[in-house]
Amino acid sequence: MTTESNKPRSAFTWNVGGWFGSQIGGTLWLLILGLLLLSIDSLTAWVSLGSYGVLNAWGLYLWGARRRISAYAAIQFFLSAASVFIALVVSVANSRGLSQPPAPGVLVSTSLPWGVIAVAPGLMVWFFLMELRASRTQD
Q: What does the H/E/C string look like for the chain?
């Protein structure tokens, strides 16, 4: 039986600012991209806006489930979903020719290199290693 005194140590704890700041900060680019593309390509724009909405709804659901799920597991679930939606947006934008390198002096660009897809899985691995280290220091 797990009690507070022998509960496994974790590198992650639930925190409203950390959760929503990371969630909104990590998905805001999808909203901005979608708004920028509305007048250029409605399909890609709506895929981006829809991804923003779904990911934030998923994050809100995970926050509501925080009594049943650890912060670490929720982060991994959120990043798993983000991996799928980011890959979708990047794939659609690139297949439709919308990912253009920024012109010199331009402040806003729709450039989406394929490497963007690796960000969320990379974070998942990093957080896994942090969690592994935290659980090993408990002994």
A: CCCCCCCCCCCCCCCHHHHHHHHHHHHHHHHHHHHHHCCCCHHHHHHHHHHHHHHHHHHHHHHHCCCCCCHHHHHHHHHHHHHHHHHHHHHHHHHCCCCCCCCCCCCCCCCCCHHHHHHHHHHHHHHHHHHHHHHHCCC
Question: Over its length of 139 residues, how does the chain's per-residue pLDDT go in tens digits?
Answer: 444 555 668 889 999 999 999 999 999 999 999 999 999 999 999 999 999 999 999 999 999 999 999 999 999 999 999 999 999 999 999 999 888 777 888 877 778 889 999 999 999 999 999 999 988 876 5
**How far apart, in whole angstroms, are the C-alpha atoms of residue 26 and residue 119?**
10
- Quick count: other Cβ atoms within 10 Å of Cβ 74? 21
Domain boundaries, the chain: 16-99+108-136
For the record, the structure tokens of 124 come out as 């998942």
